[in-house]
Amino acid sequence: MVSRLFPELCALSSINVTLEANPAAEGLLIADSLTEEQVSEFKEAFSLFDKDGDGQITTKELGTVMRSLGQNPSESELQDMINEVDADNNGTIDFPEFLTMMARKMKDTDSEEEIREAFKVFDRDNNGFISAAELRHVMTSIGEKLTDDEVDEMIREADQDGDGRIDYNEFVQLMMQKAAKTIADERAVIQKESASIRASFREESGDHSVRRNNVAKLLYLFTLGERTHFGQIECLKLLASPRFADKRLGHLATSLLLDENQEVLTLVTNSLKNDLSHSNQYVVGLALCTLGNIASIEMSRDLFAEVEACVNTSNPYIRRKAALCAMRICRKVPDLQEHFVDKAHQLLADRNHGVLLCGLTLVTSLCEADEEEGGEEGIIEKFKTFVPGLVRTLKGLATSGYAPEHDVTGITDPFVQVKILRLLRVLALGDPQVTEQINDILAQVATNTDSSKNVGNSILYEAVLTILDIEADSGLRVLGVNILGKFLSNRDNNIRYVALNTLIKVVAIEPNAVQRHRNTILECLRDPDISIRRRALELSFTLINESNVRVLIRELLAFLEVADNEFKPTMTSQIGIAADKFAPNKRWHVDTMLRVLTLAGNYVKEPIMSSFIRLVATTPELQTYAVQKLYTNLKKDITQESLTQAGAWCIGEYGDALLRGGQYEEEELVQEVKDHEIIDLFTTILNSNYATQVSTEYIVTALVKLTTRLSDSTQVARIHQLLENHQTSLDVEVQQRAVEYSNLFSYEQIRNGVLEKMPPPQIKEESRVLGPATTKKAAKAANRRSRVVKPTEQDLLFDLMDTPPSTTPAPGGASNTDLLADILGGTSSPPTSASPQPQQSNVASIMDLFSAGPAQPAASPAPAVGGGSNMDLMSQMSAATPPPQPQAAPQAPAGLPVYDNNGLNVSFQIQRNAEGMVQAIARFRNSGSGPLSNVGLQAAVPKTQKLQLMSISSTDVGPGAEATQRMMVSGAKGQIHTVSLKRIDQVNDNVRLFRLGIPDGSSIKFLPGQWLDTFVPGIVKPGGFTITSPPSRARLPTSPYLELAVQRSTNPPAAWLWEKSSIGSQLRVRVGGAFVWPPQGVDLASLRRVVFVAGGLGVNPFASILSHLAETECPYDVQFMYSVKVPEDFDSQKILFMERLAAIYGREKVSGCLQLFLTGRDQAENPITSAETATEEEKAEEQEASEAVAEQPTASGGSSLSCNEIEVPFKSRRMNLDDVVEALGPAEDHNYAVVYVCGVPSMTDEFVEKLATPEGFGLEPRRVLYEKWW
Question: Is the pTM here over 0.85, yes or no?
Answer without folding.
Answer: no
